[in-house]
Amino acid sequence: MRVGPLKIKAQLYCGDELAMGPGKADLLEAIAREGSISAAGRAMGMSYRRSWLLVDSMNRCWCEKLVETVAGGGQGRGASLTDLGREVLGAYRALETGLAAASQQGLLSGLEVMLRDEPLPPVREEG
Q1: What is the pTM of this model?
Q2: Tens of pLDDT along 71-106?
Q3: In sequence order, what are the residues at sequence separation of 6 or more whose Cβ sits closer than 8 angstroms to the Cβ of residue 56?
Q4: Cβ(12)–Cβ(92) under 8 Å?
Q5: In whole angstroms, what is the distance from residue 103 CA to residue 23 CA?
Q6: How far apart are CA 70 and CA 56, in angstroms?
Q7: What share of the chain is helix, strand, coil (3-state, %, to 5)?
Q8: Is the dihedral of CA 56, 62, 63, 67 positive or negative?
Q9: What is the pLDDT of residues 27-66, one digit of tens each?
Q10: In the chain, what is the greatest distance between 2 CA atoms, to the nearest angstrom?
C-alpha cells in the first residue's frame, strides 16, 4: 500500500519463510470470493502451481491451516478459508490500516519535506 511517497509492506515471517504479506492476503481474499485455489489464481493472474505453493506455505506457517481444501469439482468441493484464515486475514488488514494511519500522523513529514518531487537525472560516468 502506498501513502504518498511511502510504500508500506507489512510482512510476517515464520523462521525464514514469509507467512503473510500483501500478496498472500490478496490470495486469501480471492479464495474466499472464488471458492477455489485455481479460480483465485486465475483471478490474480497467477498459475495454479504458484497459488497452491503460496497456500501450502501459509498452511505450514500458522498454528492451524488458513485454507481448507476438498479435492475435485462439483458441490462442496474447492477451497475455503478456515476460521483462523479469516481471523489472520482480518488482523493483517487491520495491521496495514494501522500502519497507514501512523504514517499520516506526522511521522513521515520530517522525511517528506527533504524528499524531491522527482529524482535528478543519473550522473554520467566519467571516463
Answers
A1: 0.82
A2: 766 666 799 999 999 999 999 999 999 888 877 776
A3: none
A4: yes
A5: 21
A6: 14
A7: 50, 15, 35
A8: negative
A9: 999 999 999 999 999 999 999 999 999 999 999 999 999 9
A10: 69
Residues in the chain, total: 127
Q: Which amino acid does the sequence have at 45?
A: G
92 to each of 37, 47, 52, how far by Cα in Å?
A: 20, 24, 20
pLDDT value, residue 83: 98
- Give the C-alpha separation, 10 to 78, whole Å: 29
CA triple 16-17-20, angle to 5 deg: 130
The string of DSSP codes covering 30-96 is HHHHHSSHHHHHHHHT--HHHHHHHHHHHHHHSSS-SEEEE-SSSTT-EEEE-HHHHHHHHHHHHHH
